[in-house]
Design a protein that fits this description.
Length: 164
Amino acid sequence: MITSEQNEQLRTWFAERLPVDIYASLLSVTVDREEITVLGTIPAAESVPAFRERTREQRMEVAREAEELYRRKVAWAVRSGEDETVFTHLAVPVMTRLRQPERQVLDTLVAGGVARSRADALAWCVRLVGRNTDAWLTELRESLDRVQQVRAEGPDVTDSQKSG
């Protein structure tokens, strides 16, 4: 988990490196342990496929630099009107240990045609929880930022261990 300050630094890093004509506006830079997703709006007169083709080389150059520096893959996303499209993003396997009742929920979603597989069903559940608890998750993330800040302001334990 990165702090909001670190996230803002990352957003600034991308904003400084992206050519001016890539996005009409840079909306967000989102990061987790494996991936950085850069989202921007495309010019109103441009289609998503045209944007993707026109900017491919420039995006790849920035992504290579970011991947080397931040040790995460970079995914690019665009917003055109109300639609969002993400290019070449990761689908990361996540270790789960589900008991039968939890597996039955996933199997019901698969049987009902909501998802193609248990993995898709689990992703669907996570998106549903995220959408319905956005305010709570935002508050939790903010409190984690505060924990990181307090830790950073505390004594350096490694220095006291070396001298003792």
